[in-house]
Write a sequence for this structure.
């Protein structure tokens, strides 16, 4: 087993890095984000094991790098680059560091059928009927969309998808 792991660590690191590279570039340029997002996240997590095996397999040459100043400089530069993204998003407490569209979507889900209907340019009755036709149980137009989804045993995102279809 050890022999197998030693032989596959570097090829797996290389292959998963290339997948991460391609999916990361695709996400950066917003090319088919629904296709690449889960792939990028999950396979980056899978990359941890082959990376650890690669470090273990190559520990002697790696330990030589650890003693050189260039390694410390590279680690500090990487940390500074990461912090350039973390600090601004961490200070955005209104949406928990998430993109603003998530905060807006949460506000919509917290809104009542009455309130959301007026924003959508519909009557509460029409929106309630559309929700009912989609399998949601609407007891009262003063209910929030989140409450309606929970009472219907459905995910709130299903209501957002319905609203998006209504708006287009």
């Amino acid at each position: 087993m050890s022999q197998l792991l030693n032989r596959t660590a570097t090829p797996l690191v290389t292959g998963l890095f290339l997948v991460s590279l391609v999916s990361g570039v695709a996400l950066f340029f917003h090319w088919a984000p629904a296709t690449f997002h889960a792939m990028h996240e999950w396979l980056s997590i899978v990359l941890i094991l082959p990376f650890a095996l690669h470090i273990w397999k190559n520990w002697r040459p790696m330990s030589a790098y650890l003693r050189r100043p260039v390694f410390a400089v590279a680690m500090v530069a990487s940390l500074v680059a990461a912090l350039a993204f973390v600090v601004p998003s961490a200070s955005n407490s209104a949406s928990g560091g998430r993109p603003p569209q998530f905060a807006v979507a949460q506000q919509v889900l917290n809104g009542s059928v009455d309130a959301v209907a007026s924003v959508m340019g519909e009557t509460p009755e029409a929106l309630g009927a559309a929700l009912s036709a989609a399998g949601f149980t609407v007891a009262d137009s003063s209910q929030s969309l989140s409450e309606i989804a929970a009472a219907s045993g459905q995910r709130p995102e299903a209501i957002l998808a319905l609203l998006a279809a209504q708006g287009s």
Remarks:
- The chain has two domains: 2-71, 101-167.
- DSSP finds ten helices and no strands in the chain.
- Residues 2-71 form one domain.
- Residues 14 and 50 are 9 Å apart (CA to CA).
